[in-house]
Specification:
Structural class: alpha/beta
Number of strands: 12
Strand content: 15-25%
Number of helices: 14
Shape: globular
CATH superfamily of one domain: NAD(P)-binding Rossmann-like Domain
Bound molecules: nicotinamide-adenine-dinucleotide
Distance between the termini: 20 Å
CATH topology of one domain: Rossmann fold
Radius of gyration: 21 Å
Oligomer: single chain
Low-confidence stretches: 1-11
Largest sheet: 7 strands, mixed
Length: about 425
């Protein structure tokens, strides 16, 4: 089997998330001895769309933005994945994120494929009206390729419930009837699911609890370092704090705060919400986002963005458990270093899968027109995350591989099985 990228991961461009993803895919495929036909089909995305989005800005001028939607795989069901708005969006990043969605949905065994979308824009420099017009025109450009049975977007970095409400409305206007199941992560009043907003953070809490049991760690003496304070990092930090863990760091894009005795996360998040910064928050040391990753802790939760743990800093990471809240926070080149240090990795495609799991619940509820109470959602999320954690650990033990490799092998095995059963339409 041609395997150009796996032999020496140091040869790949370390900060290219697509190459990072592919080197892990190749390694897992090789260990699985994946049939060459399946390999050829599964290593590429199914379809990629590039759109140019004209938006009338508040100044009256038209600006044209570049957007993408990559649909990586449909073998197990409709494609599923978030939409991000950022000046840094690239097609390679969206490709990697789309593939990660395929593997993530397979790891937690929900009946979706993978997709991702992004628009190159700086949402912090745009008014609400400009963001709405951008979202509506982007949705209109994708109208033929998204839908409850085709591809179901969700929020990601810098998009939120409001973005999803605009997408759902635009799609519904074109369909001439309300189609709530076209996106997930909507406001609860518009067909969203109870518990969706917290789901990714809650999923992290559940898998960290399982790891803590495995390593006999007690929450009150377990120091957790969290990077990021958005939907994933902020909520995970709060839930971990409420569960009795000692959360010792928190950060946003401008830097972090550190207190080895634990931070009152409710106060820190309230401070952030009020002042839009952690500046002036009392009784903490200031740390940069990079220093934060290297603090003494038991559990490290990078929950901001990609490429935070690399070959440059992996040997200075001091945690026992790495629970990846963000997508792709660790580069492929760093994997081996973490493994040699004996760090137990809960890979992103499991650790942050709580979001897509409850998105799946939301899609199911929209299609039934019947909505579950939050405790039912949380209980079903708990069941799936615990079962998936156990499946992963068992798979890693049985095949004598690290948990990252096990997660890819498990996912690729499931997608390959379904692809083989369907047959390749060639
Ligand atoms: P968000 O926009 O709500 O929060 C991102 C946080 O990271 C903010 O605190 C921001 O200040 C910080 N940040 C952004 N860029 C940074 C940088 N370069 N360095 C340090 N900090 C930075 O986004 P989110 O929804 O919390 O997503 C965070 C990560 O989790 C992303 O990788 C996303 O793909 C992934 N993820 C999100 C979900 C979800 O349900 N929201 C689900 C699975 C995975």
């Amino acid at each position: 089997m041609a395997n150009p990228m796996v032999d020496d991961v140091r040869q790949i461009k370390e900060d290219n998330p697509f190459e990072s993803m592919m080197s892990r895919f190749d390694r897992a495929a090789q260990l699985l001895d994946l049939n060459p036909d399946l390999y050829a089909v599964m290593r590429v995305p199914n379809r990629e769309f590039k759109v140019y989005i004209p938006v009338r800005m508040d100044s009256g001028r038209i600006e044209v933005f570049e957007g993408y939607r990559v649909q990586h795989n449909f073998a197990r069901g409709p494609a599923k994945g978030g939409i991000r708005y950022s000046p840094d969006v690239t097609l390679d990043e969206i490709r990697a994120l789309a593939a990660w969605m395929t593997w993530k949905c397979a790891v937690v065994n929900v009946p979706f494929g993978g997709a991702k979308g992004g628009v190159v824009c700086d949402p912090h420099q745009m008014s609400l009206g400009e963001l709405e017009r951008l979202t509506r025109r982007y949705t209109a450009e994708l109208i033929d390729i998204i839908g409850p049975e085709k591809d179901v977007p969700a929020p990601d970095m810098n998009t939120n419930e409001q973005t999803m409400a605009w997408m759902m409305d635009t799609y519904s206007m074109h369909a001439r009837h309300t189609v709530t199941a076209v996106v997930t992560g909507k406001p609860v009043a518009l067909g969203g699911s109870s518990g969706r907003r917290e789901a990714t953070g809650r999923g992290l809490l559940i898998v960290i609890n399982e790891a803590a049991k495995r390593f006999k760690m007690n929450p009150p003496t377990t120091r957790v370092a969290v990077q990021g304070s958005g939907n994933v990092g902020g909520i995970a930090a709060r839930l971990l704090h409420e569960a009795g863990y000692k959360v010792v760091t928190l950060s946003d894009i401008n830097g972090g705060i550190y207190n080895p005795n634990g931070i009152d996360i409710h106060q820190a998040l309230a401070h952030l919400q009020m002042t839009r910064s952690f500046e002036d928050f009392p009784d903490v040391e200031r740390v940069s986002n990079h220093e934060l990753l290297e603090v003494e802790c038991d559990v490290l939760v990078p929950a901001a963005t990609e490429n935070q743990i690399t070959s440059q800093n992996a040997d200075r990471i001091k945690c026992k458990v790495l629970a990846e809240g963000a997508n792709g926070p660790t580069t492929a080149a760093a994997d081996q270093i973490l493994h040699e240090k004996g760090i137990f990795v809960i890979p992103d495609i499991l650790a942050n899968a709580g979001g897509v799991t409850v998105s799946y619940f939301e899609w199911v509820q929209d299609r039934m027109g019947y909505f579950w109470k939050e405790d039912v959602v949380n209980e079903r999320l708990q069941d799936i995350m615990v079962a998936s954690f156990n499946d992963l650990v068992k798979y890693a033990d049985t095949h004598s591989v690290d948990t990252r490799t096990a997660a890819y092998m498990l996912a690729i095995d499931r997608v390959a099985y379904d692809t083989r059963m369907r047959g390749i339409y060639a």
